[in-house]
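Instructor's aside before we start: the two examples that follow are unrelated to each other. I chose them only because their records fit on one page, so don't look for a connection. First example below.
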Amino acid sequence: MSVRALWIISHEKGDNVSIRFSRRFSTVEHRAKRLAGSWYVAVPDENTVLQLLLTELGLSDSNKPYVALRDDCLHCQRSPALELRVDGPAKGVLWPVLAISQGPLILACLPLVDAPAEPRPPLSSLLSVSQGLTLLAGLQTFLLGSGGKLDSEGLASRLAMLPAVLLQVCPLGTPLDVPLLGAPATNTVPAPAGSQKQPAWKTGLHRGRAVVNVALAETVRSMQYGNRSRQDLWDVFGTVTCKCEVEGVLPNVMVTLTLPPNGSPLQDILVHPCVTSLDSTILTASSVDNYDGSAFSGPYKFPFSPPLEPFRLCSYTSQVPVPPILGSYQLREEDNQLHVSVTLKLHESVKNSFEYCEAHLPFFNRDQMGVVDVKVSFGQLDTSKEKNLLVWALGQKFPKSREVTMEGKISFSGPTAGPTDPLCTDLTAYIKLYFKVPDMTLSGCCVDQHSVQVYSSAKPRIVTSRELLSKEYFIWNSTGTAPVSSGQMML
C-alpha cells in the first residue's frame, strides 16, 4: 500500500481554514500514472484540493443550503472515501480520497489504487483503503494525543516533527508499520515467524502491558408533546466500543453482554467483521417486528480477534417502557409577554447521579428578550438575551422529589430582532435536554468485568464502563403546534 498525497488541514467549524501540512510522493504518483493509463487524474494544487475537500465535507458555502457538486441526488457520497471532481486541464475524478476529522483537524490522503480504474472496484476489496485509514488514525493519535485534544503550541510542535516521522514510518509514500507514529499507548513490532500467519488487515503487533477496555454507551432520543392527540416517542440505541492491547498474532477475546431478569431483549444487533462466530438467534430480533416474548434475551456472547485500533464491537436498539425524564411545557402569550410553565420529572428507574444535565429553552422569530422574570425550584438559570435563550442548569442531581419546575414571564422588547427559525413560529417552541448519566444504561445492559475472557499468554487488565447520553431530546410546547412523526423514531 502506498500514498500519492497527504494533507493535514486546520479549521474552526469551516472558518479560518488552512493546510498545515502536505506531502506528495512523486515515485508513487509515477506508479499511479502507469496503472491508470488514460484514466489518470493528476493531483491538483493545494488550494484546489482544499476547496474541493471542504465542499465535499459540507464545510464550505455554509450560507447556501444547496450546493450542486455536493447535494445533487445523482451524487452518492460514501464517507470516508470521497470523490473530488477536478475541473480544468486535468479534468476527472480523484478517488478514493480518505478523510477523517477530529476537533480542529482534518486529515486526508489519496492512496494508490492497485486496480483498473474502470469498472471501479468495491471499497471492501481495496487493502489500500483500510491501511490508508489506519495511517490517518495513527497520524491523528500522534498529533492530538490519545485524548484527542492538544493545545495550539503542542500541535505546532507535533507538526514540525511530522516530516522526520514520515521519513521513518512512510518512506517514499509506503507505510512500513501503521499506526505506530510515536503514539505512547501502543507499540507495534514486525510480526515474528511462527505457526500463525499475520492477516493483511492487521499491520502490526502489540507488545507491552495487556489491557482490554470495553465501553458501553446508550443514547436516548425523545419527542414529548404533552397532548393526548399526539403520541410521545422515544428510542434507545447502544454501542459497545473496544480497545484491546493484547499480545499475539490473532489473540482471542470474548465479551459478554447481560440484561437484568426483566430486561427487554436487544434488537437490531450489528457486529464488527472481526467477530468470529455468533449465535444466529442474536441477529433475528428486530424492532420492526412485534415483540412476542420469545426473542433471545441473553447473555450475548461476542468472540472476536481484535484489531489494534479502537473499534465498535457491536450496536443494538432496545425498547424501554418510559423515557428517563418526563416533561411538561406550556406557553401562553399576553400583551407581548410569554407566560412560561415547565415541569421536569426524573423517572424512578433512573439513577439520580448526572455528569451534567441542562435544559435549553430557545425563542425564535421575536424581538430580543427584555425583562426576564422567571424562577426555578431547583438549579441555576442563565439568560442569553442576544440569543433569546434560557439555559437551566440542573447540576448533578435532581432533588429528592425527583421533580423540578420553572415559572415566570418573559417580555420581548429588545431593540433588535432575535434569531429566526422557519419551524418555530407563534407558539411552536421546544425544550431541548442535554444530559449524561455515568454507570447506567436504560436497557439495563452491562458488561461484567469478570465476564471478559482473553485467551493470551499474559493476563490483561480489564476496564469496563457504561453511560447514558441524550441526543435530540425534545419537549414541545403543548399549547402550540409541533412536528409529529407518523411512525417509530429511526436512528
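Example two begins here.
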Amino acid sequence: MPFSHHSHSGQFCKHAKGTLEEVVLAAIKQGFRVYGLTEHVPRYSLDHLYPEEIEAGLSPDGLMKQFTDFLDEAHRLKSAYTSQITLLVGLETEYITEDDLDMLSNILSEHSNRIEYIVGSVHHVRELPIDFDRATFDDALRRFAPTIKTDTPRASHMDQFLSAYFDAQYTLLKRFRPEIIGHLDLCRLYNPKLRFSEYPDAYDRLERNISFAASYGALFEFNAAALRKGWDTSYPGRDVVELVHALGGRFTLSDDSHGPQGVGEKYPEMRDYLRGLGVSELWFLSSPTDGYVGHVFERGLAATRVGGEWWDDRFWKR
C-alpha cells in the first residue's frame, strides 16, 4: 500500500496535464509504492480523434508514435526510479470498432516484452464517446431510439444502450482478458443514480461480464475519477460493488490521474467509501517472486493481496 493501476499524463494524452516523469515524482512524493502507467492505446481513424488531438495536429500515425514514445519513456522511468517506487507499464484499451481490437492485438504482439498489463475499458457505444460530454452521450443514447421522431429516449432505449456497452465490454474481456477492469460502470457517468437492476437485459449482461472477469482472476478497480466528476462514490457504484463481491470478484485501487495534480486525488474519500461498504480485502499487481505458486496472468504479473487491514496503512495517515 498504496497503489494505483490507471493513470495518464499530458505528455502522451492531450486531455491530461504535465509530463510522465512529473506524474511519477508526484506518486513518489505521496508515498505510493506501486504505480501503474497506462496511456490510451492509439485510435486508427481520423473520425475518432478528439478535438484537442486535431488541434494539436495529430493523426492516427502520430498517435501510434506517441504511444511507442510513451513505452520508451515509461520504461526509462521504471528503471530510473526503481529504488523509490515500483512502476508498472501497461495501457488502457479503446474499443470503437473491431479494427481497434485487431490493432491492439498487433501492438500486444509487437511490444509483448514491454506491456505488462491491460486496463480493460470501453469509452464508446456505436462509435460515439460516452464520457466526453453530456451532449455526445445523449447523441449515443438517441441512436437506440426506434425512430428519428423520438426526441426523448424511453427506458427501453436506455436498456438497449447499456446492453450494447456491456456487450462491447464482454467482447473485450473475452479476447484480451485484461488484468484490471477499468471504470466498470462508466456507462452511467451522467446518470449516477441509475440502477442496473431496473434494466433487465443490461443487468444480465453486467452479471455475465463480472462472472467471466472474476473467473480468470481480474481485479476490479475502485476508480477515483467518479468522485472528481461529482459522484458521491467512486466507480463502481454501490450496487455493482455488491454484485462483484457476490460473484467472487477482487478489488484494487486506481486514481485515474490525468497529470501530477491528480495523483492520489480523492483517495481519502475513496477510502471512506470502501470502509462504508465493508470492503475488507484489496489486491494489487506485482511481479511473481521466485517460487510463487499462485495464478499468473498471461502477460506475467500476479495479483497480491494487501496484508493486514489495508485501511490502517500509514499512507492514509499522511
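The chain has a mean pLDDT of 94.
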